[in-house]
Amino acid sequence: MIDPTDNNLLIDGRNLTKVFKDFWGRPTVIAVHDLDITVRTGTIMGLLGPNGAGKTTLLKMALGHLYPTSGTLAVFGRSPRDVETKSRLGYLPERTAFYRTLTAEEVLRLFGDILGLPRDETARRTDQLLDMVGLQGARDRRVGGFSHGMGRRLGLAQALLNDPDLLILDEPTAGMDPIGCHEMKSLILTLARRGKTVVMSSHLLADVQDVCDTIMIMYGGTVCQTGPVSELLARKDELEIRAPRVSPKALAEAKAALAREAGVDRVHVSTPTRSLEDYFLEVMRTAHEQKQATAGARMGTGVAAYLQQDVDPKAVLEQLTHSRQAPELPDAPTVDAASIEKLTRAPERQPDKPPTARPDENVDTDYLNRLTKN
Q1: Which of 65, 220, 243, 362 could form a disulfide with 60 if both were Cys (CB 3.0 to 4.6 A apart)?
Q2: Same domain, 219 and 256
Q3: Does one domain contain both 34 and 84?
Q4: How far is CA 43 from each of CA 103, 167, 215, 220, 237, rounded to the nearest angstrom?
Q5: What is the pTM assigned to this prediction?
Q6: 104: containing domain
Q7: DSSP states of 176-235 as a string?
Q8: What is the full per-residue pLDDT of the chain (374 aa) written as tens digits?
């Protein structure tokens, strides 16, 4: 069990198992099985695994939302359900849900009241967090009009409202575009530099590699591999040499020298490449600097070609309206006035006839006559 006096250990779980049961108490799913986890202060740990690997279940046990069926788990040296423990936690769920009629500022003020923060402290943190997550300009907009990425950033601000020591993020970049993913990862790295400890789950390998220094790979509720990213991804039997471009002669001599040592088949020379994300962001940055942005977004699709040239606005308007005109129809046949009157004349209403009484076959008429005589 974790030592309460050791401030470097935040999460310590031993032999954790979580079994979900049906109404009759029969086990149905073993979500986590005999799992150990240790998280130290100042690290960014990534939980990797396919859907159903047990990542969310493990996070919910660390949050105190679920009890482990067996094993021991301590967060900050205490039970995850302890009030003191919860006051030091921040949580971003996989799906963020807020009152759609509230503004971003009102959402954070509401959660500040729920957390019991003083009003002036909530106002101060609201300003700081909205600025940090890039929502300062949307603080008075209703959350119902937010995009998915804006909702995720507001969720991160809400998770940071109580200034937690440990931040738990469940799929923080799920459903976000490349720019939103880059901003979210930059925020996570910034939080780590400010002393926050982060545990995040994801099935996006590139995101975990970009921000995490420690990873845990899960499958079927168990741990397959865990350790520092640099060690797990290192190819210890290979060496990478980077150098500026040299002449073909110098390159051939260097390759021949390496081939004599390692073998011809094991020496390869190639041009280094960058990640697609870096290239995409560079293109977006260039487009933004050239003001190639639509009126509805800071960065987005390029402006139409005719808007980038000096053209006559009337000519553009005529071109647009001409393209929207309906095609000409063939001449309609002529119709005389009498035919039009006949077609448009309302039909004459027939007078209503009084209903005719009909004897009911199920009634005894003799018995009915005797009753009416008396």
Answers
A1: 65
A2: no
A3: yes
A4: 33, 11, 10, 25, 28
A5: 0.66
A6: 9-232
A7: --HHHHHHHHHHHHHHHHTT-EEEEEES-HHHHHHH-SEEEEEETTEEEEEEEHHHHS--
A8: 445 455 688 999 999 999 999 889 888 999 999 999 999 999 999 998 888 889 999 999 999 999 999 999 999 999 999 999 999 999 999 888 899 999 999 999 999 999 999 999 999 999 999 998 889 999 999 999 998 889 999 999 999 999 999 999 999 988 888 888 888 899 999 999 988 999 999 888 888 888 999 999 988 888 988 889 888 877 666 667 777 777 877 777 777 777 777 665 666 666 665 655 566 666 667 766 765 444 333 333 333 333 334 444 444 334 433 433 444 444 445 545 555 455 455 555 555 555 555 555 555 566 556 655 55
133 and 87 housed in the same domain: yes
- Please state whether 129 falls in left (phi above 0), alpha (psi between -120 and 50) or beta: alpha
Vertex 45 angle, CA 49 and 13, to 5°: 85
Instruction: Using the CB atoms, write b or e for 214-232: b if 16+ within 10 Å.
Output: bbbbbeebebeebeebeee
Q: Is residue 347 part of a domain?
A: no
